UniProtKB/TrEMBL annotation:
Record's keyword annotation contains Methyltransferase: yes
Transmembrane segments: none
Protein's UniProt keywords contain Methyltransferase: yes
Protein name, UniProt field: Modification methylase LlaDCHIB
Domain annotation DNA methylase N-4/N-6: ranges: 2-141
InterPro entries reported in the protein's UniProt record: DNA_methylase_N4/N6, RM_Methyltransferase, SAM-dependent_MTases_sf
GO BP term (any one): methylation
Amino acid sequence: MQQIGYRILNDIVWEKPAPAPNLGCRCFTHSTEILLWATKATKGSRERHIFNYETMKAENGGKQMKNVWRIPPPGKEEKRLGKHPTQKPLALIARCLRAATNEEDLVVDPFSGSGSTGIAALTLGRRFVGFEQDEGYAMLAARKLNRVIRSQIPVVDGPAQGSPSLFDHA
C-alpha cells in the first residue's frame, strides 16, 4: 500500500470470540484478523481523512476507542440467505464505516462477496457501489441488498432502528 502512495493510519485487530477450531491441531487457533486503515492524503496536507472521533468515543462509553475490537463472527441471521467463506460481520463493517465515512458518502467495495459492506453502507445512509467477479456471490449480494432496500430501513446515527438483526453486536 505504501508503495502505491497510501499512508497507513492504524492497524485494527479484530478479535473473534469463540473462533472456529484448528482441526489440524498443528498450530494455534486463528482468532484474529488485521484491518489496515490508510489514506492517500499526505501528512500535513490540506486534504484530510475522515475520522469520526466523537462517534467512536461515544460508542466506547466515553473513552477513546482502542484498536482491538472484540466482535463475534457473522451469526446465523447474517448467513440466512447465503454465506461467503471470508464474510465479515455487519457490526465490524458498520463500525469501520461509522468511523471513517459520513452520511451520503460513497462506499466502494471491489470485492463484494456476499454484500455485507453494501448492507452496512445502505443501512447507515451511505451510497454504495460493489463489484464481484463470481456470478454466484454477485447474485447472493444482490438478493441481500434488495432485501435491505425493500425493507426501507430507517437511517439514524449508528445502528439501524427496528432492525436489530443487522447490527446485533454493533
